[in-house]
Amino acid sequence: MVGLLGRSQTLLRCERSSFSVGGRASCGAVSCVCVTDAVGLRRLLDMQTDAPERLEAIVHGRVQGVFFRHFTRQTAEELGLVGTVENQPEGTVRVIAEGERIALESFLVWLHQGPELARVDQVKESWGTASQSLHGFRILR
Q1: Which of 11, 15, 47, 100 is the most exposed place for a label (fewest CB within 10 A)?
Q2: Half-sphere exposure of 71 (CA within 13 A, CB side)
Q3: Where are the domains of the chain?
């Protein structure tokens, strides 16, 4: 399991699906890796050989008018994901992202936190096979 932690975007890869705070593995596993910069993140992601997957998420809370879509696109691009993000009429944000599972897991952890001005109350997620028809990461509306 991999997760972006806090707004410092520390990434932890942990065989026991535990996350750390401050870069220390909470599970104590020797194989856990902590990555704190973009170069290290790309190296970790490049080691993965998983087939592309698709994550669809609806984010509930104070997620419109707080630059949620902007930071979602920025985070997705940093993780090498493609997809879309758009405001929904009922006040939620819909996200579709495709890429390797390890990157999507990190992205999902970030979606649960959102940017500094946001308040995420709930994230409804669904997983599937990547369509591989998406290019780049776009803000739709």
Answers
A1: 47
A2: 18
A3: 2-46, 53-139
DSSP 3-state of 15: coil
Task: Give me the half-sphere count of Cα atoms (radius 13 Å) on the Cβ side of residue 35.
Answer: 19
Q: Collapse the DSSP code of 94 into the 3-class scheme (helix H, G, I; strand E, B; otherwise coil) and give the result.
A: strand
Measure the CA–CA gap between 19 and 86, rounded to whole angstroms.
29
Catalytic residue among 13, 54, 69, 73: 69
Q: What is the pLDDT of residues 43-61, one digit of tens each?
A: 666 655 568 999 999 999 9
For the domain covering 53-139, report its CATH number.
3.30.70.100
Q: Is residue 138 annotated as a catalytic residue, yes or no?
A: no
- How do residues 78-133 score in pLDDT, each as one tens digit? 999 999 999 999 999 999 999 999 999 999 999 999 999 999 999 999 999 999 89
> Which entry of 42, 62, 87, 101 is annotated as an active-site residue?
87
Instruction: Confirm whether 69 is a catalytic residue.
Output: yes
Contacts of 39 (CB under 8 A, 6+ apart): none
**Structural tokens at position 39:** 């170069």
